Amino acid sequence: MAGDALIVVDMQVGLLDGAPKHDLAGVIQRINALAARVRQNSGHVVWIRHCGKDGDGFEPGSKGWAFLPELVQDAGDVAVDKMLNDSFAGTTLHDTLQCRAPNRLLIAGWATDFCVDATVRSAVSRDYAVVVVSDGHTLSDRPHLDAPTVIRHHNWVWNGLLTNRSIRVATTDQLIAESAQR
Known about the structure:
Blueprint: E1 5-9, H1 13-16, H2 24-40, E2 44-50, E3 78-82, H3 93-100, E4 105-110, H4 112-125, E5 130-138, H5 147-159, E6 167-170, H6 172-180
Parallel strand pairs: 1-2, 1-4, 2-3, 4-5, 5-6
């Protein structure tokens, strides 16, 4: 039986510097814990890496392009490069997942209202069973809303998306507890 695939979106040095990110240390810890559990249960971890333009601080090969050093990566993990908000658009992500045939996609990362949201919606439109890690994504405060409000709003919206398979929003602790029962 195939395991889950954890999709970790844009957790890169150049994207996460600057303005404070809501609970970044906690999000990193939870991504690491969930990634370890997914690997332990014969699943896969896919790191999505945004490729910026020259001079924007996260262009390919630059220090800012690297994943955060606090993230625990494994030799069996896969990295997929992207250039748009949607991790599927113009990338190898769908083909990568098709080869692994995961039961579900668990989605976490940066930024809740841009790349994570676009990736969740794209995964749903491609008929994946999706679980958004409710405490596994982050962003900075926005001019009109603080980060916790944006996170709560998106978790609520995602839970109500129409899908041919399933969509669910769950905490890291819920997902880890469920995986221990398998």
